[in-house]
Structures are given as C-alpha cells and as structure tokens.
Predict the 3D structure of the following.
Amino acid sequence: MENITKSFSRVPVLDDVSFEVCPGEVHALIGENGAGKSTLMKIVSGAYRADRGAVFWKGQPVEIKTPHQAHDLGINIVHQELMLVPQLSIGENVFLGRHPVGRGASRWVRWNDINEQASSLLKGLGHPLDPKRPVGELSIAEQQLVEIARALAFSAQLIIMDEPTSPLSEHETRRLFQTILQLKERGVSVVYISHRLKEIHEVADRVTVLRDGRHIVTRPIQEATTDNLVRYMIGREIREQFSEKESRENGEEALRVEGLTASGKFSDISFRVRQGEIVGLAGLVGAGRTELVETLFGTGEAESGKVYLDGQLVKIQTPMDAVRHRLALVADDRKAKGLVLGKSIRFNVALAAPRKSARYKIFLNCSREKEVAEQLARELRLKTPSIEERVMYLSGGGQQKVVLAKWLSADSKVFILDEPTRGIDVSSKAEIYDLIRQLAESGVAILFVSSELEEILHLADRILVMHRGRITGELPREGANEELIMQLAIGGTVH
Amino acid sequence: MRRFAPLMGLLVMAAILSVLSPHFLTFDNLINVFRQSSVNALLALGQLLVIITAGIDLSVGSILGLSCVLEAIMLKAGVPWPVCIATGIAIGAAVGMINGLLLTKLRLPHPFISTLGMMNVARGLAFVISGGFPISELPSGFRFWGAGTIAYIPVPVILVVAVYALFHVFLTRTTLGRDVYAIGGNKQAAIFSGIPVDRRLTMVYALSGGLAAVGAIVLGGRLNSGFPLAGDGAELDSIAAVIIGGASFFGGEGTVWGTLNGALIIGVLRNGLTLLNVSPNWQKVVIGVVIVAAVWIDVLRQKATRKRGLVKK
C-alpha cells in the first residue's frame, strides 16, 4: 500500500500512509485507538476505498472495491467480533456463502465434501474438531480457528487478525501463536493488530506503528523495544505506567463471602475485601470468575453461601438489590452490559442512580444530573466535546470511564471490576489504573478481576487465584509473581 | 434536526394539499382532521411506549374493541357513565398488564407472540360478550367524550392534547420514563444497572392497554355505539404513526411529539385524499408508500450521522 489517504467528511483519518507485508511475514500493526489501524485494514479488505494512494498485490496495482474482491485475491480478515453463524455447523461456517455444489445442473450442496475439507483444514491447523458441531457450542478460541480455517478455505494469502488474543486465556494465546507459525510456514502473511506489546515480540517479524493517521515507524521486531514502541504510539514519554504503591493501613471489612456455591460454575468461594483494599482475582478464562462476580451482583443464582456487606448479612438476588447495597459491577463486556451506546454521557452516568438526584423520587432533576455528569467527566478526564455526546462515539477507554462514572454517581462502596482494561489503548489503561488506585484511596473496596497478570501484580494488595470454580490460592502482594499465579491458575499448588 | 423531521413532513404535506384543495386549509377541516386522528393518536401513544422498549403491541385494536363493548353493555344496564369509563380503562390496563406478564413471567420470546395471542383473545371476547351485535343509543354523558365540543374544540382533541402533555412529562421528566428509554436502548445494561426491567415492561404494556381503552371511549362516544369490530386493524395504524414519527423499531428512540406528528400525517393524508376524491383503496396504497418512505429517509439520515461518528472515533 502506498501513500494511502482517507478522510471521512473531510476529516483525515489516514494521511499518506504506506505499508507493506512480505509473503510469509507476520507484520504487527499497532497504535492507539483512532490511530487508523482499522481504517487501513478496511481499505485493504475492500470495506472502504482510499481517497488517494494505491494498493499493490504481488507487485500489481489493484483496486479492491468490495470485500468479495478481496477474498478473490486471497485477503481475509479475522474480526475482533467473530463473524460466524452460531446455529450452523463448523463445516457450514467454513464454507459460508460458497458451498461446494455439484457440476452442471446439479446444484445440490455436497455435504461430504464440506465436512471432509473443513475437517482436514482444521487438522492442518493442529486442532481436529468435528465439523458437524454447531459453532455456538465452541469456545471463542475455537471459533477463531474456524474463522482462520475459513480464510484458508478461500485460499487466503494474507490474513488480518484484529486483536485476536483479547478474549483468549494465556493458554489459548499460546495455541493461537502456534497456529500463526503454521500459517507462516505455508507462506501465508499475517497482519497482527494488537495492543499487547509483549505478544508482538513473540509472534511478529516486523512491527509498524501508526499514530493519528500517520505512519510513524516500521522496524524489525528485534530492534524495537517495548519502551520505544510505547513512545512511538503515544508520541511522548509516559511516566512509569505502574507506579509503586506505598502500603497503607486497610480499613474495616467491606465485603465478606462465605462458602458461595453455584453448581457447575463455582463452589465454596470464601474471601473478604476491606475498605481501601484492592483484591485481585486471577485465573484463566473459564475459571468461573465472571460467573462468580455476576452472582455476587445478583444476576446469577447461588445455591448456598453467605455474603456480608459492612459486616451485615445481605441477600442479593437481583442487580436492584446490589445497587441498593451500593455494590457496583463494571462488567466484562461494557458495550453489552454497561452502557446504552445510543444515549448521551449524561444519560449513562445517571443510569444506575436516577432516583438519587430526582425530586420526590420520581421527577428527574436535569440540572443536577448535568452537574454530576460534568463534574465526573472532569474528574475522570473524559475526552469529549460535551456530556451530551453519545457514548458510541467515545473510545474504549472513554466508554469505560463512563461506566465508572455511572457507579461513582451511584455512591457505590464496593466496586467489582471485571476485566476493566480489556481492549483499551495504552494511555487510557494507565488512566484507568490511576482511577482504580484513587478509588481505593478514597476508601472504596475493590475486587479486581483480570486475565492480565501484569496489571494484577501491580495494582492488587492481595491476589486470589481461581481454577475451575475454586479459589486455589491467595498470594500477598509481596512475593507474588507471574509464575506463582500461573501455577495456581492451572491447578497446581504452591510450595 | 431529527426531532423536527416529522413536523416538516406534516407541513410539506399540508402545504401541498392546501394548494390542491381549497377546502383543506379551513379551521373546520383542520379541526376535523385532528378529531379524526384522535383515536389513532391515543393508541399510537401506548404503542410508542412499547416500541421505545423495543417491543410491539398488536393487541391495542382488540383491547379497544373489548373495552368499547364492555362499556356499552354496562351503560345499557344503567351503570353511571363515570363508573363505566373507569371500568373500561381498568379492563384495558389489566389486559395490557397480562401482555406484560406473559412477556416477563412466562418469558415468551418476543412481545409479537404474546400480543398476537392477546389480539385474538380480546377480539374473540368482544364478540362473545356482545353476541356479535353492535350496542347503540348510549347516554349523552358518555357520548360527550367522543362527540362533544368545548368552545368549538372537539373534546377528543382536548383529551389528546392533555394526555400527550402528560406522557411527554412522563417520558422526559420522570425516572420511570428514563428507565423505559434505557431498557429499549440496551436491556442488558439496564438490568446490570439495577433497573427493575420486568416491572417497567409490565407497566409499559399496562399503559398501552389503558390508552387503548381511552381510545375506546372516544370511538364509542363518537359512533354512539359499542361494537365488537371497533378498532379492527387499528394496531397497524398506531404502529405506522409511531414509525412515521421517527421512533426506532429497535428501541431506545422515539418522542411523544414525533408520534403526534405521525398520527396527524396519517390523518392529513386520509383527509386530503378524500377531499381530492381519491378512493379509500388508493389511500391505502399512498399510506403504505409514506410509511416506507419515512423510514427510508430516516435510514439515509442515520447513515449520514454514522459517518460523522466514525470520524469522531
């Protein structure tokens, strides 16, 4: 791609960007949200067209007008949100839209071919799956494989992966990397978009950084240190992302859980969180952490066990009960569970606590609502022209700040954060960490669920580790490290 | 901009009609249009609430019929009209509430199903109770609500203005209204924010049923009769008014103001086409085209805003 320029309504989003991928190369493409990564890839894959500039494929200039044309050339995207039909089988999804059919007048779908070919493609990727299973039954990692198999079935020579590892556990990430290596051996090129700099060093050959729609640098991976890349991405020095936290006295017990059990999800969970304390909850994806915190918040049912807030036994059967007891849940999927995307920041901030600022509990107090939203937007350093802006137009980090503001305006005393930095760019992440720390300092009790060991190690005062629905260990801040946590997370013991 | 699109549509249409027909732009005719639109406006208001929650209520026309017949029977039995009206509204709200409970307690997958069932049940009951015959010659106290005037203004028009003002306040100024928008915008997020979603949904369907019953009073009063076919097909007109009025079928969007415009657009069209001697059959064709065109214009406009949104991202 040479000198690509693209604007939306005359606002440039890509400015004279050139980018190349060699056959069999894994090329990482990084940059903050809004840097233009997705737009660039959408131009290659035919979703958008460039205003200026040219795309060359195997040395020939090509014009890619539709995704279909891109497929014909051998260019495929594995999207962040997987594009599969959950009700259909693996085989059907692999061949979606181009089922092999008989020759001539016989237009019947040839099921045997579909299943055989899908099966051999998956085997080739090192993951034999039954092609007749419906995709809806598969884990996200397996679904990704189906998408990759689909790309290969289109005889793809370039596969673009947009944040492929953000929903994956460490273990699944390893397996994906093996798959990527296999693709490389076959001569397939991969463009790997990610926020996780560590992964890029493991998997990529070269790395390109975009910032504000401009090409900043392309380097062989050996010559790019993480520090350098971060600097290129944000265009300035950031202070140490994880500042050491001075230890402080923790307050009274805020949340205590005793023997909480929901069969098939988790069992015999006991722990406590004090005011001002950040307790990390680590584990692999599927260990039951999200199920546990959602049950605490009243969206799931527990069979037995007790929950105490401020020393009082409470029964939380619905999220309404939870909000009344001033419990907050920043859910794992902010778009689905946290926000009304089509509504304004003000609307969303008031979502959990409209009654608080209401007159006679029923009439909205709009000016008060505005005040609260404006003040929180300022305090959380939300980048927005106005609090009337719809939250769908905010970046991932901005949206997460709105979720936090929603719970702050509800005066929550216990915050449960489930993967709060998932899919958020580096500088917003640092801001979210700061906010979590400030929250703790103000006396709020925090249960912090994360699959990123680094951030748990840096933020948490204590770390609980879950494995298959049980807490397999508790580590104090001092002496905890990634190896110890991983050992507990995969079910081992610590000596 | 979006807020005023239905009004602009209404004004453009009125301008065209006033050129085409000298009778259109007269006080009497305009008041007449408003009066003729009043039943649909009442039904559409309930429909709006339901559609904001991303639902649909197919039973409003039948609830109108059932409530209308019940009131007529009670009136004929000598029950004072205020009691009849109150009972009629209560029955309508109760039937609507059952719609809501079918959705929230029995967890039927979509309100299309529960209200489709109720549409048949309520219509059937209206026939059973009345024996299939219209019940005419109702007392004047009741007729006043459909046919009376106060200072040249028909009572139904005053009623519509009052009810619309009330629901405007309800939707924009109360926590309940706020919850309704939140549920339609993202039900999951509403649940996770501690909003009592099931209770609010039940309330919305009960209000829709209650408003349909208010429509029954107006229609029964105007026609001086309670008949089992009253409001037949009215659910579709009410949905059309809401959609023309700019509400989103996917929930979370829609205003009382837009819906009033939507109901008036349908009324103006019917009236204008009748003045121009267009047959009722062709009127249907035109209204169908207007529904599709209104939504298509909205789609174009949203595309334009989305482009703007991409830039901001």
User: Anything to note?
Assistant: Chain B has a mean pLDDT of 91. The CA atoms of residues 244 and 294 of chain B lie 6 Å apart. The longest strand of chain B covers residues 135-136. Strands of chain B lie at 135-136, 149-150, 153-154, 225-226.
